[in-house]
Specification:
binds beta-L-arabinofuranose, 1 helix, 23 strands, Family 43 glycosylhydrolase, hydrolase activity, hydrolyzing O-glycosyl compounds, Glyco_hydro_43, hydrolase, Glyco_hydro_beta-prop_sf
Length: 307
């Protein structure tokens, strides 16, 4: 009896382990990585591309989370959040970001708002655990599209990225074509003050902020099809100096969406491409590469690898 149970449990563990190498997840299509280092584990949050093989648009209803203690073996921890958790939203579990504050985990999630405010909006969900489940923290959107500016498009409030500075101030960055940012209140679920815009040439989406030594790095998707580029600055709000390209566009998938972390003395960049069989524009796969800083603080160009 004991033996049978032990074998069953060993098998269950094995099926939850994804193999090392790119793409990280091999049994479903995944996109839009966000990563959080928490204690001795990396949590990787991804969108789930469910489009049919001949699909002509994204079909994304949920996010998935995996974790690893060595960046090689990944444990599938299921779906921490689904669009349905936001009663005011109707679709599109697009590129999210997750952070930890005062012992709680906050999941910033772009979704399609219901008919009361059509267009993309950003919700925030909270959990006591990095693997969720996450629940709507506000009952309404944190940022929603008011379509009041001449330049507004229905999907310009997407791709949230959260950054907590060393003085404790948290910022939310987001946007498509126009990069926006705002301070977050310490409760992490309300904006604190006005929404600012940042002028960055050829900015498309996927803004991401991190700090290395004393420099702030603003990475983002540039042009379309997208490549990953970055700028550096002396603070979380710039001013930003363009530094160049980190990663080339993919020949099949027009988006790339990066997340950058330090873990166990190394730096890594997550992104997505088309490398699973039958992969494509709406059937993407998340991959990871090591990222290296040059002695002058610039980031060395990173080729995409298949393994
Ligand atoms: O996954 C939907 C959208 O495609 C994301 O919001 C963008 O970053 C791009 O990856």
């Amino acid at each position: 009896m004991f033996k049978k149970a032990a074998v069953a449990s060993a098998l269950a563990t094995l099926t939850t382990l994804a193999q090392a190498g790119n793409p990280i997840v091999k049994d479903i299509f995944t996109a839009d990585p966000a990563a959080l280092v928490d204690g001795n584990r990396v949590y990787l949050y991804v969108g789930h591309d469910e489009a049919p093989k001949d699909g002509k648009d994204y079909v994304m209803r949920e996010w998935r989370v995996l974790s690893s203690c060595d960046m090689k073996n990944w444990t599938d921890q299921g779906s921490p959040l689904n669009v349905k958790a936001f009663k005011w939203a109707k679709a599109d579990a697009w590129a999210a970001d997750v952070t930890k504050r005062y012992g709680k985990y906050y999941f910033y999630a772009p979704v399609e708002h219901d008919a009361s405010k059509p267009g993309k909006a950003i919700g925030v969900a909270v959990s006591d655990k990095p693997s969720g489940p996450f629940v709507d923290a506000r009952g309404s959107a944190l940022v929603s599209n008011d379509m009041t500016r001449e330049t507004d498009i229905p999907w310009d409030d997407i791709d949230p990225a959260v950054f907590i500075d060393k003085d404790g101030q948290a910022y939310l960055y987001w946007g498509n074509r126009v990069l926006k940012y705002a301070r977050l209140k310490p409760n992490m679920i309300e904006l604190d003050g006005p929404i600012h815009t940042v002028g960055i040439d050829n900015f498309t989406e996927a803004a991401y902020l991190h700090r290395h030594d004393k420099t702030y790095y603003l990475s983002y998707s540039r042009n379309f099809p997208e490549e990953t580029a970055y700028a550096t600055g002396p603070s979380a709000t710039g001013p930003w100096t363009f530094r160049g390209k980190i990663m080339d566009m993919n020949k099949v998938v027009k988006t790339i969406h990066q997340a950058i972390i330090d873990f166990n003395g190394k730096s890594y960049i997550f992104y997505h491409n088309d490398k699973l069989p039958t992969g494509g524009e709406f059937r993407r796969s998340v991959a990871v590469e090591e990222l290296h800083y040059n002695p002058d603080g610039t980031i060395a160009f990173i080729p995409q690898t298949a393994e």
